[in-house]
Fold Ribosome maturation factor RimM.
Amino acid sequence: MNPPDDTTRLGYFLGPHGVAGGVKVYVLGDAAQLLALPRVWVEGRGWLRVRRADPLAPGVALHLGGITTREGAEALRGANVYADDADLPPLQEGEYYYHELRGLPVYGQAGERLGEVADVQDGGHQDLLVVSHPAGQGFLPLQAPYVEVRLNARGRPEAVALTPDAPAGLLGEEEGEA
């Protein structure tokens, strides 16, 4: 069962929290984005109503509709958690959600189009852009000083560009092709 379109992966379940069905979530990004969600899409289960969300350093404990026992929460261990993009809270100016990067063009240092952002993945110490380009797919670290996310007049992402500090070959192209 694949997540629906227009959803963003927020993290994954670590295991039970308490004895009444609470589940600890390892959050990718800001844990506050989960606190006001009305529902989440759970890998292998589908949409579940969020009955309660409690801040829990470093993540969140979710209490979900239909999960009322520790054993029920244990069964969710390792499952990915997604939110409908429309349910995510609004951001401050200049901030963006990773789902807003999907589909954006990726430009090289000279302004040439290199490809398109297919997805954003958690790479542990840094997040990675999955970029589709003519030679296939490659990973691009979403990190200064190599990448700049260009924002439009409304403060929303409109393109991703490699900076002059980006080493040649980041997307797997041969040196001199970039």
User: Anything to note?
Assistant: Residues 7-87 form a domain with the Elongation Factor Tu (Ef-tu); domain 3 fold (CATH 2.40.30.60). Helices lie at 70-74. The mean pLDDT is 88. The longest strand covers residues 7-17.
